[in-house]
Amino acid sequence: MNFDAFLFQSFGGPNQESDIIPFLENVTRGKNVPRDRLELVAQQYRTLGGKSPLNEINKDLIRRVRAAFGEHGIDLPIYFGNRNFTPYVTDALEQMRADGRRRAIAFVTSAFGSYSGCRQYKLDVELARQAIGPDAPELVKIRHYYSHPGFISPLVSNSIRALESLPDPGGAEFVFTAHSIPKSMAQTSPYLRQLERAVDFVVRGIQARAGVTFPSSLAFQSRSGPPAQEWLEPDISYQLASLAAKGVKNVVVVPISFVSDHMEVIYDLDTLAAKTARSLGISMARARTPSDSPEFVEMIVDLTMELLDPSTKPKSLGDSSDLNGCTEICCPTRP
After folding, report:
1. Which helix (H) or strand (E) holds 210?
2. Tens of pLDDT along 4-21?
3. Which of 28, 46, 151, 244 has fewest C-beta within 10 Å?
4. Domain range enclosing 138
């Protein structure tokens, strides 16, 4: 296929303290979230310096991808657009149009399929294209990459590194965490199925490298919906309490649905979950996310080559039955 640009698409975050409330208003627009709830979340950003770590992480990742493209002979300029704060996707597409770019590959910092993790990013692009008009660039989104070795292998390495930091690695259990979503959303997407497969890939990788099989479970974090709405469970805090009741003293937490160490990893796990673990007498180590690994950048190169050259064989662990992005019937409009 012919492409002349590459879009790096992410969630976005505040760059300074004055950006926090406008950013949170963008994230929650149409959800009737009370102002005091926004202020509560804003305080979390203020405790970490008043800005999101995601912006610098993404800029560094783009720099590394640009260098990797050069090494592999991929001649695509990289544009950067966010969903919820500057630079917005519309800004990126406007610049593409001004530069004469007509067709771009879109990479999203979400490895799994769901409304919020896949389709909403595609809708962002469509809304931006409508705003720009008939000469707006066309975009093709890279597939879900939850099973790509460049996503799984760094998680295995980072999990073993975290394991080795515990007082009693041999008696540890692994808890994989993913961003919770409403059950109604999970029922219309491949999210839970893909999560379970990714956990299995990482567990098998840990076993192969460590020579030991460790007990493991999947928990959820970062729930944001009203109490009456059913979301995927158990929450990480409840899972830690359950393990403590069984006498478990050492736990490795692996944030498997997150690409980088942004706010929901640093605050929800390194702050809240770590505090819960201490109160339960658990030694907790958190595995780093995969984006700072060279393998992750090579994965982006691989996924780009799949679209540039259709004869490229896709890389995936296990079978290759679920390598596409969202179809027309999955991940419908948010319930």
Report:
1. helix 191-210
2. 999 999 999 999 999 999
3. 46
4. 5-142
